[in-house]
Write a structure and sequence with these properties.
By secondary structure, the protein is α/β, with parallel strands linked by helices. The chain has 5 helices and 7 strands, in the order ααβαβαββαβββ. Helix 2 crosses helix 3.
Length: 180
Amino acid sequence: MVIIISLITLGVVSLLILTFIFFPHFFGALWYPTPKRKIRKMLFMAKLKEGELVYDLGCGDGRVLIIAAKEFKAKAVGIDIDPLKIFFVKLRLKLLNLLNRNIKLIQGNLFHYSLNEADVVTIYLTQETNGKLAFKLFDELKKDARVVSHKFPLHGHFELINFDQNDKIYVYKPLILSYN
């Protein structure tokens, strides 16, 4: 009986390691949670207002969503490709009585979902993924939307409107292109 319990425990631990460390690497970013202090700073720098809609792409443990909803009174949508992370975030949100009130979770590839309703988009992805994502953001975001990137800059048709050198926080808005 002890051997069976040990094998089950080993299997669960192995699954967690694969899910939280190796699985995300193949889909755009390893998971490094952003400190809550930086999240507050990111949302403040983006001038997030009450009632606005935040999309957190690669939402991990949901901390951006929770801070946006509780402290900024915003609505939030988190997208993550990892089903186990989404499961744990849903559990956490239910315990905090936040799920389905101001926060929605989507398990899937962030490239497959529209961002056209977002007022603010937060990202902490790799430079490579940011490069691919820039086209989608430019095509889909409203002209007054803001993109907050932690650690890696965003290139393309975006104007840098706020920047914190120490914490590597970049806030952008889409450029309005005129072909006249």
